[in-house]
Amino acid sequence: MDKSRCKQQLAFSLLLGLWLPYCLTQTTPSNTATSKPTTTPTPSPSPRPERLKVRLSGYPRKHNEGRIELFYKGEWGTICDDDFTIANAHVLCHHLGFVSATGWTHSAKYGKGQGKIWLDNVQCHGGEKSIEFCKSRGWGNSDCTHDEDAGVVCKDERIPGFVDSNVIEVIDENKVEEVRLRPVVGVAKKKLPITEGVVEVKYKDGWAQICDVGWTAKNTRVVCGMLGFPHERKVNKNFYRLYLERQKNNFHLHSVACTGTEVHLAACPLEFNKPNATSSCAGGMPAVISCMPGPLFMQNSGLKKKLKISTNVRLKGGAKVGEGRVEVLKDNVWGTVCDDRWNLLSASVVCRELGFGSAKEALTGARMGQGMGPIYMNEVKCLGQERSIWDCPVKNITSENCQHSEDAAVRCNVPYMGLETSIRITGGRTRYEGRVEVLTSDPNGTQSWGLICGENWSTKEAMVACRQLGLGYANQGLQETWYWDSSNVTDMVMSGVKCMGNEMALSQCQYHKTVSCQRAAAKFAAGVICSETASDLVLNASLVEQTVYIEDRPLHMLYCAAEEDCLSKSAAKANWPYGHRRLLRFSSQIHNIGRADFKPKAGRHSWVWHACHGHYHSMDIFTHYDLLNANGTKVAEGHKASFCLEDTDCQEGISKRYECANFGDQGITVGCWDLYRHDIDCQWIDITDIKPGNYIMQVVINPNYEVAESDFTNNAMKCNCKYDGHRIWFHNCHIGDALSEEAERRFEKYPGQLNNKIS
Q1: Of these four, 13, 405, 634, 700, which has the most CB atoms within 10 Å of its CB?
Q2: pLDDT tens per residue across span 7-16
Q3: Which domain of life is it from (predicted)?
Q4: pLDDT tens, 294-307?
């Protein structure tokens, strides 16, 4: 290569922040004392000495994510997560040859590093060539422990022309990434989940066993947790010994010494088998374990009753089983946990007490949506052995410490049930949409795919289908799918499907024993559109309580309201325009605390113009307002069409995106709210015909599930209501899922109200 061309290439490469050793080896003068003749380029170029070396490490991870480790002064070390930002992650991912970062992790998500913590309080702008050019406390100056090691998740796309991969992998066959239980007993092989068997680790292209000499219950606890089981149980080793002695075993691990709190076997001290060892497991046999599943995954109903899971901890807002925002119950009111110092140890305690395995992820920053009630816990510091999060040390909360934007969440390990193998979607433009097909067996055991009748198929059924598919939340349930007609499957095999919405699979929902479908053509088969995120609407209950009052409104001012059906039926018999209607008025402030904007299902082309009020309706029924008597019967009702879904106001740092003026886009942005003031038309219940007494007032948002949400249990709000014929009092206003079951029962009975249920 001529020198001028090499200089051009070198200049271009430096401009990109790259280094081309090939060019240098060809242009290095051959008469220098230290130089050695080089005829061929090295296949994997190494970075120049002064360029900082960076690598991704840890477990369990993909090639584009991991704990960040820096090579400085001849030693590998980590970065502390204090003040870490996405800008820092961008700089590090660029350095590693990826186009950008998609996220970063804290609290040693990929395991604790060793050696030095090289950098702390790193603050990059995002454009720096290397992390060393960012502000920090200086090399080796840190007040952190390896519990706070930072990691990055890079976008799996390489910078074009990036020569030095800089993803320095430790070439080590002694890594444990995948672990499985291999059932030995014939019956166990057919049933899912697999709870008992030989522990095996992925090794090369196959699976290898672990020597059980020195194996402890703590090791079993860790493996069970990884596989989605909260507890371990004793196993009959003698039964297995007879079988395993006749098998050829390939021992990869010679010794495991877990403490019992690890979330992955790779985090335990491991001793790998030496290839030339004469006896790989002297006096032992392959490790065999037995795990106890949580109640959700048990076949035996008798055992289910004995196993109690926590009633004062729950997960909310997750798409899949075993994930969600962590909520805890105190004084009969549910509240959230702040994410300061939230880590896998604390998350695992929550997962196990709810009947799942150890934690797969400890999520921060309201990644599963924001809660609405009190924030009860901060800086939770579980050791990992506690039975409940309530047994862990915590800090008291002040409003300066935490906001709901910092609500902690978890993703737990759950047992493999194989549910996704019996459902698929076809014909969609993306993998998130299509016509639903389910796998069925005939009496002879022959399996075939079939369709689901679209009649009465709704968002609730779609929620279950999307969960079973592993595709997140339901965006829409479709009753016609003629536009997705790309499959040769035409037979309807399921009809009358009716789900609660929280089932793990469609087979757990109600459905017809014999298929009965009036429109049996394939074009009327059920379909879904799934989404990774969803909105979540919640009413501000305290504002309803604060703003309620009675107005006697003259009939001549209610013509438009009557046209929009906002008055009770007796209004039609009134002597218009004389007389009045007695209206129970209040304000509604509707927050979107989910992770996607709430938008009307219908596009603006199908919105209905209402000339009387001079606006479009994007949803015919957006809220129901009901007054219920002692036995739960509606005695008065109102409803609100969504004539204007918009961002009235937002949390700090969030911009409004929707406004109704000039036929604008309608919706509610995440972190914003829509306020229907007490003094606008139809923001009432017509109580003209109501006698004095005690009632329950109920508001239900999105009552027909027209628009998908991550959680429908918080769409209802209820208040105790006392009316003396002249004045009205509201008290105990609360969101439908805000109280404990006991407190909810007390609410229903006050006073003498026994059976009021949200329909």
Answers
A1: 700
A2: 444 343 443 3
A3: Eukaryota
A4: 999 987 655 655 66
